[in-house]
Write a structure and sequence with these properties.
It comes from Streptomyces prunicolor. This is XRE family transcriptional regulator. The protein contains 7 helices and 13 strands. By secondary structure, it is an alpha+beta fold. It folds into 2 domains: 104 residues, 434 Repressor (Amino-terminal Domain) (Orthogonal Bundle); 202 residues, Immunoglobulin-like, CATH 2.60.40. Helix 1 runs antiparallel to helix 2. The longest helix has 20 residues.
Amino acid sequence: MPHATQQADVATAELDSALRGGPFHVALRAAIAARGLPLQRVQHHLTRYGVKVGVTSLSYWQQGARRPQRPESLRAVRALEEILQLPEESLIRLLAEAEERSVAQRPAARSYRSFVEASGVLEQLLAELESSLDSGLHTLGHHERVRIGPHRELVGRESHHIVRAHRDGIDRFIAVHYGDPGCAPDRMTVHALENCRTGRVRRHHETGMLVAELLFGTRLRSGDTFLFRYGVEDGTAGVSREYVRDFGIAGGQYALQVRFDENALPVRCHRFTQHSAAAPRSGRQELRLTGGHHSVHLVEPRMRSGIVGIGWDWE
């Protein structure tokens, strides 16, 4: 009995220390160990609180492989404080501190003001190309592949478009590429890969924007469909942490794949959406990195206006 009491005292001391200094996953693991509960029992107790969390998720949380972020997961954390007989808000506080540290370690996201400035620059560059935001084309399908290199940089991307003309005489598409902060548009290149050729190219250093004409070599009539493919080679900025696509109007299917170099794999990936650049991000969903292909993807069967993207965290 004295030995068991000594072990309990050690577990209690470790728990007290973890609750004071964190991090979250260490405190959670210490609390579960101090109460002597297997994860299956913890899950059972959670169901009595009306919260559904898988044993795998609980295991990831206490290992630090993932953090609870969805509303249902945060409800589970509050329930765990009661189940594990912890002070109120003790785990929630550590979770908030972990998120604050994570945000602080990331480069600042582009502000709403920067998006407004970029939209003004885009209009200016389109005017130089004698074009407008209304390209005369409706997107039926857009499949995009993004490559992240060995130095965690955005190496480039490839886009495959299926479009339909909604007026006569359309003979080109205007491709727009935004590099990561610190990029050098002057060193980016555009490659026409299928059913098009590169026309005029415009660059704007301050916003990291490249705008290029892709000429079809034929004039479409209203209702005609067309397929084409092009790529942009970038690799001019530092560490990349997300790829975002902004849709001004609703369209057809959109698929985005992000492939990572085998020597630079992120610890976790997720998808997200935004109604606009000024709106908060929502719809966060974890994405599993495929082993052999080192990639994650999302598919939107029918795109609505707004922003969709994939983000990832490095060690």
